[in-house]
Write a structure and sequence with these properties.
Distance between the termini: 46 Å
CATH architecture: Up-down Bundle
CATH class: Mainly Alpha
Structural class: alpha+beta
Strand order of the largest sheet: 1-2-4-5
Mean pLDDT: 83
Largest sheet: 4 strands, antiparallel
CATH superfamily: Outer membrane efflux proteins (OEP)
Number of domains: 1
CATH topology: Outer membrane efflux proteins (OEP)
Radius of gyration: 39 Å
Number of strands: 6
Helix content: 55-70%
């Protein structure tokens, strides 16, 4: 692009020409006795500020290119953030899967005691042992998924293998909260919006360049003519200018104006779409955060107490294995729901960050150097 700017700054090239007349004719013009040789230097005198207009167009292209780089960087940062959040999700899923193994093993131990005491069927114990094995399979499945997400994150950094073991951070830290109005005000910082402004400036520069064509340039030449029969030389000069340049440039000006107006329409449409997208992300995030807090502060503590009480009742023979299993599963489902709603909240936060180009999350950290 810099080379294009240097080219735009160049003035019209000089041309050297030679013209030989009255050669190889008939009569008095036969041979070279009456030959006339003219050597000339010619160029174009640009009028209407064409050079400045060309340079302005290239400068606006450079500015547009820089904004495109900012947009690409913001997209990449958003992708990295979402991959990082995915690792936080995987970490919580592994912890829950390991807790499920522990609860399943504890259940199997309790069932085994009742089977040995001949107060529960052996089928209950077989089901409990199968549940333990299924829980262990789930741990391996989630661990494999986390490894794949680590690899994806490492690839974003241009690495073939991840050089970290763990990610620090909490899935349940949802970042700062702001009003929708303040977030929408930050949309002005989005490079995509600045892209439209820069593209408008480019189109206006192209309009100015098109208008410069309404003023015709002057072609000039100056040279020396040598006459063989008189053995004398003379200075020759000339100029020319095309007529009706303004009319010929009208279509180019109209086309440039239409292109600029189209950018304005696209900008207005983009602003409406980003307003809708931001509002949807904002309301969904608020709902996810409220749901996660309700699960954390109310539902999960109650289900934890319910499981403890059910276990005690099962040990006393007051509840069946199915009651015990149901209470355990309800607690695990609630904790699983907490992970999913928290994941939604953080992913929506990352989406809002991308729309506003403003961080809401606490920074990401990667710990460890060797792959597990």
């Amino acid at each position: 692009m810099q080379a294009e700017r240097e080219t735009a700054q160049l003035s019209p090239a000089y041309r050297v020409g030679a013209e030989l007349e009255n050669v190889a004719g008939t009569g008095q013009l036969s041979g070279t006795q009456s030959a006339e040789l003219t050597v000339s230097l010619s160029s174009v005198l640009e009028l209407g500020g064409k050079k400045q207009a060309r340079v302005s167009v290239v400068d606006q292209k450079l500015a547009l290119s820089r904004i495109k780089q900012q947009i690409a960087s913001l997209d990449l940062l958003s992708t990295v953030t979402k991959n990082y959040i995915q690792l936080l999700i995987d970490k919580q899923r592994i912890q829950l899967a390991e807790e499920e193994v522990s609860l399943a093993q504890a259940t199997a131990d309790e069932v085994n005691k009742r089977v040995r005491a001949a107060i529960a069927p052996k089928a209950d114990y077989a089901r409990a042992v199968a549940a333990v094995e299924q829980a262990r399979l789930n741990v391996r499945r989630v661990d494999q998924r986390m490894h794949a997400h680590k690899m994806a994150l490492a690839n974003l950094w241009g690495q073939m293998q991840p050089d970290f073991n763990q990610v620090s951070g909490s899935l349940f830290d949802y970042g700062s909260s702001r009003s929708f109005e303040s977030l929408f005000e930050l949309v002005k910082n989005n490079p995509s919006l600045e892209f439209f402004a820069a593209e408008t400036r480019l189109k206006e520069s192209e309009i100015r360049l098109a208008k410069t064509q309404q003023q015709a340039d002057i072609d000039w030449s100056v040279g020396l003519r040598r006459s063989a029969d008189m053995d004398e030389s003379a200075l020759v000069a000339g100029f020319s200018m095309p007529l009706f340049a303004e009319k010929r440039a009208e279509s180019a000006v109209k086309s440039a104006l239409a292109a600029r107006n189209e950018i304005t329409y696209h900008q207005q449409d983009f602003l409406l779409r980003i307003h809708s997208q931001l509002y949807q992300a904002y309301t969904a995030r608020e709902q996810a955060i409220n749901a996660a807090k309700t699960l954390q502060q109310s539902i999960i503590p109650q289900l934890t107490d319910a499981l403890t009480q059910t276990k005690t009742a099962y040990q006393r023979g007051l509840y069946s294995y199915l009651d015990f299993l149901t209470a355990r599963q309800e607690l695990l489902n609630a904790k699983r729901a907490l992970i999913e709603t928290s994941a939604d909240a953080l992913l929506l936060t990352a989406e809002i960050e991308q729309l506003t180009a403003e961080p809401l999350l606490i920074g990401q950290n990667f710990e460890g150097k060797n792959h597990e």
